[in-house]
Amino acid sequence: MIEKAVQQIMLGTVCKTEAQTKETLRCIKQAGYDGIELNGFMIRPTPFIVRMLTKFAGMPVGKGGNYHWKELLKEAGLHAVSLHEDLGSVRKDPDAVIREANEFQTKHIVITGMYRFDYSDKAAVCKLASDLNHAATELKKSGIQLSYHNHNCEFRKVEPGLTAYELLIRETDPDLVGFEFDSYWPTEAGVSAPDVMKRLGTRMKLFHINDRGTRITGPSMTPILTSDSMELGDGNMDLDALLTQAKAVGVDAVILETHKNWIDKSPLRSLERSAEYLKRCSF
């Protein structure tokens, strides 16, 4: 069965206290989701500067690092489908990452992209692929799948006709490194998300789903509108085709993630609206 989940980054503004977090998780379960994708920096105490940087980026993380997430999820009847970590932490102390994955009973560790990294540098991308292979080897010994999550930077060219993402696919070991494919970002970069999904095939272990469009109604001030994230089914992405491909390759989970532009500025209203679309899909 393909699980339906919500990315924890959506929940910072509605997890300001442990009591509010319990209510938020209850709403997620009631909406029809099976689990949460956790972030390492949101389930452990985080330095003040990290909280400020994520807040300025439009993704406040709150103070969830002080909560007992394992107990909170269990009480809500939700499962940790995966855990986002940074590659440096995995390479520095793979045993600690493995212990945390086992604690949350998940087999998926996801690398969420690299900060201050030049995705147009072919040598750097090849080195990244090598590092992913090495980290994945360590995790696989304990039955943990390492996957890489894309944004739009990976669709920069490292040479004519070759993107950094294609190079990562090519240079990582198919038996070790999987992918958590986020279809919003290649679409934003002008790349065909369905084509990339077909290229990944069964290496796509998890699917980050979002929609893209605009809420503006009535006359436009100019002939140009700016697109943004939307609730599933309210935008213009071919979600039916994307989900069909995700199901065809047997992904373990479809994970909703939006950072802003929510209905009534409420992530809960937004994920409930998206849940209505997911309920119409056969998993």
Structure description:
This protein has helices spanning 18-31, 40-43, 48-56, 69-76, 87-92, 94-103, 122-140, 164-171, 184-188, 193-200, 239-248, 267-279; strands at residues 3-7, 35-39, 79-85, 108-111, 145-149, 157-159, 162-163, 177-182, 204-209, 211-213, 228-230, 253-256. α10 packs parallel to α11 (239-248). It is α/β, with parallel strands linked by helices. α7 links the parallel β4 and β5. It has a single domain (3-279), classed as Divalent-metal-dependent TIM barrel enzymes (TIM Barrel), CATH 3.20.20.150. Helices cover 40% and strands 19% of the residues. The radius of gyration is 18 Å and the shape is globular. The mean pLDDT is 93.
Tell me roughly what share of residues is in helical segments.
Answer: 40-55%
Q: What are the segments in which pLDDT stays under 50 over at least 5 consecutive residues?
A: none
Report Rg: 18 Å
- Please tell me the overall pLDDT: 93
Distance between the termini: 7 Å
CATH-assigned homologous superfamily: Divalent-metal-dependent TIM barrel enzymes
User: What CATH first level would be assigned?
Assistant: Alpha Beta
Strand order of the largest sheet: 1-2-3-4-5-8-9-12
Topology-level CATH name: TIM Barrel
CATH-level-2 architecture = Alpha-Beta Barrel
For the sheet with most strands, the description reads: 8 strands, parallel, barrel
Structural class by sheet pairing and helices: alpha/beta
Number of helices: 12
